[in-house]
Write a structure and sequence with these properties.
This protein is α+β, with helices and mostly antiparallel strands and 549 residues long. The chain contains 13 helices and 32 strands. Strand 31 (530-535) and strand 32 form a beta hairpin. The protein binds one RNA strand of 77 nucleotides through strand 22, strand 25, helix 12 and helix 13.
RNA sequence: CGGGACGUGGCGCAGCCUGGUAGCGCACUCGCUUUGGGAGCGAGGGGUCGCCAGUUCGAAUCUGGCCGUCCCGACCA
């Protein structure tokens, strides 16, 4: 089909709105793909919806290829279904009440609804099943941001797999993981599947798909040799080896007046920060005080601490610290402390300087196992300078957008909602479930973040709103028309800019809108009976006779 | 929820400090000229200055409250 720009709503802008900061935000608004209605709430214009639908169709095709079946499940969901799983209490869930006082939830994902339907699965003979739909999701985001990156309302593709056992789930999970890789590859989006936190979804394992992008909210770590990729929250990378002074046979007290920070301490003792340790007393949800211990140059990764403690926590107050250690913060250490000590793996080998639990004093030569008995855990946050745990290669740290997340839910939802089946041995068992999401708007944002230049968007072919953008300049309308028809007949989607405006304006809009190929018909090419075909990505242009395009 | 910034026509901005009847660029309408990277001339249209109160003869401008949007943090399938 040939779309005529003169008849379309194509609201391109010369300037981005002042509040736009992220590349996807600026360019999608300027290019006329999206318009904001409220914070985190956007309309897709006809142009933007073309892209959204292309993304949707690629996802649909790849899910069909693994045998998943498309549904359409409602947004309005009786609250009782969510009370059964306890998720009605999640703060970001939006609740509504109808005119008769009935309560509903506007879901952020559809585990409850699909598990409700899965009650109709009766026998292992019907398994496995994989169901999905595209539906609007709602989240009461406290802080929407970054254009399409963090939204209060957005379309998600969410799938749910139902298996009879863990092996079945593993297979379903891997099928989805493979489909996701193909989806992002087809869309021209660089994305990595990395281990992730399961958060409030629960379940036994989960993987994020992270697309490197400047305005992303996650930090992705990748190895230069391509054998490692992880989210910083769970990454276990190799820290720089410590520079330790000569070993001591026994502890040695040293006065360190006024040395309250690791920097002070290292300078005062003329040692490297890697030869020190850092004490982080925290209080668990149950009120227990635990001493976290890190190497001096490391920072605590809070998600890891939660995992290590098996509980939420908060930093201890100064009063609690004095009561437990008898010293001020800044002179705390594990030696002589009678509570639990959780030490980072980096402190397993070697001797470090630690606080002496006596204000203004430290201990040299502190050695785990000899001077204190810690439980070891991975607590440190990966940082620049760490090396790859597989090959020792250099690591790259970059921000990334979470475009997909896949979970092994096991039987969490099926057990709570009574979705059971009868197995081969006549036993009734809960379905073993997985759930798999992709945020379409985030995919669109990622594509723009990864593919743009100073002039506008450079859409990957598979999700471009149009395949070809024909610029019709005055005097060459006929040849432009012929070129458009020819492209159309060859199966390309064509945007024909037949508006009565100046060449510069048309070129600027073509760059902004970002179709992969631009075809210009104007006086220059007219004499040759030709058009100029330009590649949006490279800018390479060549003159081609109309009959040959 | 804490910190910061901003709110003046569709978009970008000035005016506010020092109160006096709202302006610029782009866009829009009409006419003429122009046409390979955001044209020129002429004539026009469009704004409760976020909202509410207060001070004042008079408020876009000063004061108070509220709302909205963006950024940082908290939070985050």
């Amino acid at each position: 089909m040939i779309a005529r720009a003169s008849q379309l709503f194509l609201p391109t802008l010369r300037n981005a709105p002042a509040e736009a900061e992220a590349a996807n935000h600026k360019l999608l608004v300027r290019g006329g793909f999206i318009r904001q209605v409220s914070a985190g709430i956007w309309s897709f214009t006809p142009l933007g919806w073309l892209v959204h639908r292309k993304i949707e169709q690629i996802i649909r095709e790849e899910l069909a290829a693994i045998g998943a079946q498309e549904w359409f499940a409602p947004v309005l969901t009786p609250v009782e279904l969510w009370q059964a799983t306890g998720r009605d209490k999640i703060p970001v869930i939006i609740h509504v009440t109808d005119g008769q006082g009935r309560e509903f939830v506007l879901p952020m994902t559809h585990e409850e609804t699909f598990t409700f339907h899965a009650r109709e699965l009766q026998s292992y003979r019907q398994l496995p099943q994989a169901w999905y739909h595209f539906q609007t999701k709602m989240r009461d985001e406290p802080r929407p941001k970054g254009g399409l990156i963090r939204l209060r309302e957005f379309v998600m593709k969410d799938s749910y797999s139902f298996d009879r056992d863990a092996d079945g789930l593993d297979a379903s999970f891997e099928r989805h993981r493979g489909a996701y890789k193909r989806i992002f590859e087809r869309m021209g989006i660089e994305a990595y599947d990395v281990e992730a936190e399961s958060g409030i979804m629960g379940g036994s394992a989960s993987f994020d798909f992270l697309a490197p992008a400047e305005s992303g909210e996650n930090t992705l770590i990748t190895c230069e040799n391509g054998d490692f990729a992880a989210d910083i929250e769970v990454a276990r990378t190799v820290p720089r080896p410590p520079e330790l002074p000569a070993r001591l046979d026994a502890l040695e007290e040293v006065e360190t007046p006024g040395a309250a920070t690791i920097d002070d301490l290292a300078r005062f003792l003329s040692i490297d920060a890697t030869a020190t340790s850092k004490a982080m007393p925290v209080v668990k949800d149950d009120g227990t005080l635990v001493l976290g211990l890190l190497r001096g140059d490391d920072r605590l990764e809070e998600m890891k601490m939660v995992d290590a403690l098996g509980s939420g926590y908060r930093p201890a107050t100064e009063d609690e610290i004095r009561a437990a250690f008898g010293a001020d913060p800044g002179s705390l250490g594990p030696v002589g402390y009678d509570g639990e000590v959780v030490a980072d793996e980096a402190l397993r080998e070697g001797q470090f300087v630690a606080g002496a639990n006596r204000t203004g004093w430290h201990l040299r030569g502190v050695e785990a196992g000899r001077d204190f008995q810690p439980r070891f855990a991975d607590l440190r946050q990966s940082k620049e300078g760490d090396t790859c745990p597989h090959c020792g290669g250099a690591l790259r740290f970059e921000t990334a957008i979470e475009v997909g997340h896949i979970f092994k839910l096991e039987t969490k939802y099926s057990a709570q909602l009574g979705a059971t089946f009868v197995d081969e041995d006549d036993a009734e068992r809960p379905l073993v479930m997985g759930s798999y999401g992709i945020g379409l708007a985030r995919v669109m944002a990622s594509a723009v973040e990864q593919h743009h230049d100073e002039h506008g968007i450079v859409w990957p072919e598979a999700i471009a709103p149009y395949d070809v953008h024909v610029v019709s300049l005055s005097g060459a309308e006929d040849i432009a028309q012929r070129a458009a028809v020819r492209m159309d007949e060859r199966g390309y989607s064509v945007l024909l800019d037949d508006r009565d405006s100046r060449p510069g304006e048309k070129f600027a809009d073509a760059d902004l809108i970002g179709a992969p190929v631009r075809v210009t018909a104007g006086k220059k090419s007219l004499d040759d009976g030709a058009v100029d075909v330009r590649d949006r990505a490279t800018g390479a242009e060549r003159r081609v006779p109309v009959e040959e395009i």
